[in-house]
Amino acid sequence: MQPLSMHPKSDIQIDLTQVRIDILQGIRECNSRGLVQTTKWLAELNYALRDHKITSEEPSESLNEDITPEEKDAYTLAKCYFDCQEYDRAAHFLENCTSSKCVFLHKYSLYMSSEKKRLDNATDLGTENSESNQVLLDLLSFFKTNSNNLDGYLLYLEGVVLKKLDLRSQAVTVLQASVQAAPTLWAAWIELAGLANEYEALDSLQLPKHWMMYFFAAHAFVELKLSEQALEAYMVLAAAGFEKSTYITAQMAIAHHDRRDVDSSLALFRLLYENDPYRLDNWDVYSHLLYLKEKRMELANLAQRAVSIDKYRVETCCVIGNYYSLRCEHQKAVIYFQRALSLDPQYLSAWILMGHEFIELQNSNAAIQCYRQAIDVNRNDYRAWNGLGQAYEILGLNSYCIYYYSRAAQLKPDDSRMLVSLGEAYEKMEKIPNALKCYYKAHSTGDIEGMALFKLAKLYERSNMPNSAAAAYTAACQDPANSGSKELPAAQRYLAQYYLRFSLLDHAAHYAYKCLEHESTKEAGKNILKMVSEKRLAASSSQSSDLPEDLPEAIKNVSTVSITQDIPKTPLPSPNVTPENFSTPVFTRKNSKYKL
Fold it and tell me: Which ranges does the UniProt record give for the TPR repeats (predicted)?
């Protein structure tokens, strides 16, 4: 086994013939054990490689070769019951079987029966089934007793049970052994990715040197919102021969969505829709993109299409919920998200979206419950932590806001929105140094909403640090992205008054003329221009070149420089140089390069 790593494109060597042989074997093994989602995933991947013909296919093997003749009839009957979701009956007829495939199907039937009863009871009564934990404990006892006789599939089931019991570190160890013994068992890789809560934990895993590791690494990057690394990994796989895989196309669309490249993500989803119009997987993300772009008619058509395919899929309920949310019918949206959760209480998107709807309905307590449930499903999703911060901010509990926004910022360090929200919470609690650091870091990482510099400057202004405030305002005014900002007029007025104070009349006049372009600052601009004219007249009559004593030395040295001179852009510049007492904390942006 080896740690998780992925080589550059030129170094990846994947034998597609061996891949197809492994896939066909995995389909047979998983299908005979009732692992339908893994079978479906492998079958789709096999279809993507349909143009790569196998020259010498493995001889056809009996699916039941490892089942004794005495147990074959019981296995066949139990497998039919399992496929019909009659899990208790399936478990009953396999109770005395000893072959590995029968033992797995027996234990898996017990697990699926307990989960089905737990979900049914939770939906009907709003309470957990007390028998569910006992079934899990009994299964765990069996696994511990027979720890030396477990194959890769039974190890996977043990890992799932350990994860359900919140024994995460033990689950990681067992699942690593599972993927080593049965590398084509995609469900085990998925569970393992869900247990890696950060990149360092992901990189420390000991994994088999197998082509499935590349799919796992790319999937894990998507789960951890490492969008750039995920896109690179999937492009490597596409170049290696998997370019026709609908799964890879969908995952790339999700990665583009996570990096806020809405247009690229929509283009990929539309391509998927054309190639596979009945594929409902990931339509919740597709509908969210249409919601962001306010494509009401296209979203309505998507909702009608989803209902015509399967009205009782969780993706269908989420699509309809997003449609009603776009129409501002938030109560109806909540109903459909609740329907999605009644079908699958572990469906993360529905919890988060329902929390957003409760925020719109100003029901903060209900929103908090939704976000907490989302964290229980996946504690690595920054949206749930950020939503909790917003909910507690509405309630005025700023100390809680700081905790939840901090967690969100840790999970999504390149998103300035959480840092700005965290700075606002610090500012409300009068923790000015911390707020300054948050605003500056938000600016350094790439300000999405264009508010970090304005908030930084205002806070400097409040803190009686005029030179630093002027530098921050200047940087904001020079940024073309802020040309339409509602904060711009006030910034220009401040700069005009600031330079007037130091008798830098050209600079003051420059920003005063800018003030005339806005109704809110037009009068202030006129007054400043009048004062500039008076000072110029007084200066020409006195013929004095003395500068005010309180003018910073850095500004004295450049007082004669024209405002029209080209100014090199720095992180937080003044029109010519940064004042000497500009004391903004310096942050070095962390180089986020991850191995794959």
Answer: 314-347, 348-381, 382-415
Q: Cα-flanking dihedrals φ and ψ of residue 2, to 5°?
A: -145, 160
Question: 151-171: string of b/e by CB count within 10 Å (b at 16+)?
Answer: bbbbbbbbbbbbbbeeeeeeb
| CB-CB contact of 333 with 358 (8 Å) | no
Q: Is 572 left (phi over 0), alpha (psi -120 to 50) or beta?
A: beta
What tokens were used for 71? Answer: 């147990």
DSSP structural state of residue 238: I
- H helices within 463-567, ranges in order? 466-478, 488-501, 505-515, 522-542, 553-556
Residue 509 lies in a domain: yes
Give burial (CB, 10 Å; 0-12/13-18/19+) of 535: middle
Instruction: Write out pLDDT tens, residues 274-317.
Output: 999 999 999 999 999 999 999 999 999 999 999 999 999 999 99
- Total structural domains in the chain? 5
Tell whether 356 is covered by a domain. yes
> Of the residues 332, 362, 378, which one is the last residue of a structural domain?
378
Crossing angle between the packed helical segments 227-237 and 212-223, to the nearest 10 degrees: 160
Distance between CA atoms of 434 and 496, rounded to whole angstroms?
29
430: CATH? 1.25.40.10
Sign for the CA dihedral angle at 503, 507, 510, 515 comes to: negative
What residues make up the domain containing 374? 280-378
How far is Cα 261 from Cα 281, in angstroms, rounded to an integer? 20
